[in-house]
Amino acid sequence: MGNKRTIHFSLNPKLLAILMLLGFGVTFQSCNKSSPDDLNPFVDSEKFANPEEYSSFVDSTYVLFWTSLQHNQPNMPISVMGLGFYSAWGNWGMRNIAPYPNGVALNNDANYTYAEMISGPWNGLYEVIGRMNDLLSIIDTNQDAVISVIGSEGSDEIRANAKALQGISLGYLSLLYDQAYIVDENSEAANSTLSSYKDVNDKAIEKLSEAAQLFENSNLTMTGWNGLVYDGDNAADLLRAFIAKFEVLQARNPMEAQNVDWARVLQNTEEEIIDLSPTGDGGDQWWHRMLIQGQDQNWARTPQKIIKMMNPNKADSEVPYPYPEGVYHLPEIVDPEDSRITSDFTYFSVINPGRIVFSSASNYRYGRYEGYKNTLLEPMDFLTSEEIDLLRAEALIRTRGNKAEAADIINNTSVTRGGLQPLTGGESDEEMLKAISYERIVEFTYHGSCNIWFYRRMITPLGNTDRLNVYYLEPNTARHMPVPGFELNFQNLPVYTFGGDQPEQ
After folding, report:
1. Which one of 19, 106, 241, 390 has the fewest beta carbons within 10 angstroms of its own beta carbon?
2. Rounded to two decimals, what is the model's pTM?
């Protein structure tokens, strides 16, 4: 991209002699870092001086991907907006974005106090892409010399991981924003234009497919997830799981969900994955804000919408929705319909009236991952086999496949963890799809960034006015984020946004 740069090596004498012998003249293309919208930010050339260090550089970029999504932004405020949990604290813009009493517009002013809600993941994910673009450009330009140092298998492993990082970053850009830039190692910055989220999603799937093909039937490994090791086919299966998730969650409403390539989802969910659950490092880099403050009773409570969803047959006198005006607490639910109310949630008799809007928050807070909250050292679920299996279950239903198999998948969590009545496959498609949405909200809200928003929006009709539907987003809730205001200002484009009195999507 942009101006060519020449890297000057500082290597140990033995390695330098090898490179000089092979004529290792390295050049790569990178944008001048002159503005905040750099798509391929300049990476210190020292990082590329020694091919033996490429692997650790790639692993450090997996950390950057994680911090771009799972720390604070966008997960905390967007999960409040998506009604995964409720918090009236101002941190990270949570109070400002709470969708009560109606959806609010995302603030896309570049000078907004919490502008990082929108700009943070944009900058972080493009830094991931930029790092990998530069690294791939070096390998492509100097392939023989790189191979002479780390071998062809080592070169392929770096390439596979770099393409994987390109793919998952583009994938999340496609889920989060209405449009974004499609850039890779072959892009020219001057020619970059914004593309629709669907086109960005397609490019993400293309990159992930390329990476999966490199991993498949190989000895290549993926080691960037803080202690997890995915060998060959296991890495390929994980990347195909991401493909399935991106394919499905690009849908912003039920009509778009119908147009998902469900046959491709089936194809990419055939193999069980090893759960992507990196272990916390005590709060250094591998940590998860939603599993800390999001499980703290002084910070967050479960929306009453979820508590009602999990107890649909109980009288409003016991489990009302919305929470009654002027009431500070409700009694603990006796004999909850879903046993996860007991195992995954903790009841508190009083809701702090200074911090809670009563129509939204319940007397319960989430606590399934209490062990992590207390130590910051336990695994943090990001993408699990149960989540991918439910994608497969939905694909089976929508392609008129084996509904008994789909029922078994749903029952895996609904019966074994929730104690609910098992499905047989004889239920209507609508009933089974509703059961899938239920499991996603209960099981995966605290996993991957913004899961609750993604899964609610795909089932919420455009123009929804039904505030009492416990599965839907609140009326006038944004379906995606706009391109950040700072980027629009730099490109001399009008600043726009979504939600509230602005369009939903």
Report:
1. 19
2. 0.91
